[in-house]
Write a structure and sequence with these properties.
Elements lengths: L1 E7 L2 E6 L11 E9 L2 H7 L16 E8 L11 E4 L9 H4 L25 E4 L2 H4 E3 L6 H6 L3 H11 L8 E5 L3 H10 L6 E6 L2 H10 L3 E4 L5 H8 L5 E6 L4 H10 E9 L11 H4 L5 E3 L8 H9 L9 E6 L3 H8 L2 H4 L3 E5 L1
Length: 346
C-alpha cells in the first residue's frame, strides 16, 4: 500500500509502505475512505514536533471501514464505518478514567501520526479500537465526519470550554484556519454577544463571516487592539483564543484580553513565547493550554447527525490518494489557494 511518509523537516513523500498488522488484541485495521491534513502536520514538517521520527506515516483524522479486528475488540465488526479519533485511549489509566484521554499514560493520547504510524495511508492500524473509534450514523457524510476527528472537538474543548465562553461575552479568535473557524462554529452554541476573528488572509476572514463571526480584522491592515478596545469600552475581550501557534499571535492574545478575562491557547507552538507577567500579574487573567481529550466527540457527532452543526463549507478542496502531495501544497498555501480544509479520498 501507499502512505504519506515524513522524511524529516520539510521532507514528505507519497510512497510504498508495508501493510499494517494487528500488533495488540485491542487493535483494528481500517481501510481509509477519507482523510484530511491538519495544521499540526504542517508544524511537524516545519520541525516543530521533534518527537516525530523520519519514516513516520503522518495523519490523525480519518474515516474508514473496518477490515480486521484483534481478539480483544468487542464493539466493532468487519465492515463497520467508523470515525478514527485523533486521540487513542486505553480506558484504564488514571487519566482515562477521568475522561482526560489526551493524557493517557498507557500508550494512548495523541499517538497517530506522532508516535506511531498515522492514517494518511490506504490502510491504518487503530490502537485501542473500541475506545478510539466511533461508529458513523448513515446520515453523517464522510466530509462532516472527518472534521470530528480533531478540529471540532479540539476547538470546542481546548478553546470554547477551556475559555469559559458565556452568553453575552465578547470572544476574539486569533487565526481563521480550520481550528479558528471550528472555534467560531462551536462558540456560537453559547450565544456570545460578539465573535471577532483576526487573520492575515482575506479569504479566511470571509469564511469566518460565513460561519458566524460578526467582526473581522485583517492583520497588517487594521489594528486588532484598537478594534477590540473600541467595541468594549476600552476593556478588551472576555475570551481570546489563540489558533495559530506562533509567539507573536500568543502575545497578541494577552494584549486583547480584559482584566478578569480568559486566554485559551489552542495552537501548536514550536518556539518559545514571552509571557508578559509584568503586565498580566495584576489583571486577574486566566491562561489555559491543552491537548484535546475528545470526550465531546459523541455529543458533537449527535449534533451533526441532527443537523445542529453545519460543516458543509469547511471542506474546500477534494483530492484522490494519488494527489496527496498536491493536497499538501494547496493546504499549506491558503492565502493563494483559498483552502480551509482539504479531503483526500480513496
Amino acid at each position: 500500500m501507499k502512505g504519506l511518509v515524513y522524511g524529516g523537516p520539510g521532507v514528505r513523500s507519497w510512497t510504498e509502505i508495508p501493510d499494517p498488522i494487528i500488533q495488540d488484541p485491542r487493535d483494528a485495521i481500517i481501510r481509509v475512505d477519507a482523510v484530511t491534513i491538519c495544521g499540526t502536520d504542517l508544524h511537524i514538517l516545519g520541525g516543530d514536533v521533534p518527537e516525530v521520527e523520519p519514516g513516520r506515516v503522518l495523519g490523525h483524522e480519518a474515516v474508514g471501514t473496518v477490515v480486521e479486528i484483534g481478539d480483544g475488540v468487542s464493539g466493532l465488526a468487519v465492515g463497520d464505518s467508523v470515525l478514527a479519533s485523533c486521540i487513542s485511549a486505553c480506558g484504564i489509566c488514571s487519566y482515562c478514567r477521568q475522561g482526560a484521554y489526551g493524557q493517557c499514560r498507557n500508550g494512548g493520547g495523541w499517538i497517530l501520526g506522532h508516535l506511531v504510524d498515522g492514517v494518511q495511508s490506504e490502510l491504518a492500524r487503530i490502537p485501542f479500537a473500541d475506545l478510539s473509534t466511533y461508529k458513523l450514523p448513515e446520515q453523517v457524510t464522510n466530509e462532516a465526519a472527518v472534521l470530528l476527528a480533531d478540529i471540532l472537538p479540539t476547538s470546542y474543548e481546548v478553546g470554547v470550554l477551556n475559555g469559559g465562553v458565556r452568553p453575552g461575552d465578547t470572544v476574539v479568535i486569533v487565526g481563521a484556519g480550520p481550528i479558528g473557524l471550528a472555534a467560531v462554529i462551536t462558540a456560537r452554541l453559547f450565544s456570545p454577544a460578539h465573535i471577532v476573528v483576526i487573520d492575515k488572509a482575506q479569504s479566511r476572514l470571509q469564511a469566518a463571516k460565513m460561519f458566524g463571526a460578526d467582526i473581522t480584522v485583517l492583520a497588517g491592515s487594521q489594528d486588532p487592539l484598537e478594534t477590540v478596545r473600541a467595541m468594549t469600552g476600552g476593556l478588551g475581550a472576555d475570551v481570546v483564543m489563540e489558533a495559530v501557534g506562533t509567539p507573536s499571535t500568543f502575545e497578541l492574545c494577552t494584549t486583547l484580553v480584559r482584566p478578569g478575562g480568559r486566554v485559551a491557547n489552542i495552537g501548536v507552538h514550536g518556539k518559545p513565547a514571552t509571557l508578559h507577567l509584568e503586565d498580566l500579574w495584576i489583571r486577574n487573567v486566566t491562561i489555559t493550554t491543552g491537548l484535546v481529550d475528545t470526550y465531546s466527540t459523541p455529543r458533537l457527532l449527535d449534533m451533526v447527525a441532527a443537523g445542529q452543526l453545519d460543516l458543509g463549507h469547511m471542506i474546500t478542496h477534494h483530492f484522490g490518494f494519488g494527489e496527496f502531495m498536491d493536497a499538501y501544497d494547496v493546504f499549506a498555501d491558503p492565502i493563494h489557494s483559498g483552502a480551509l480544509k482539504v479531503m483526500v479520498s480513496g
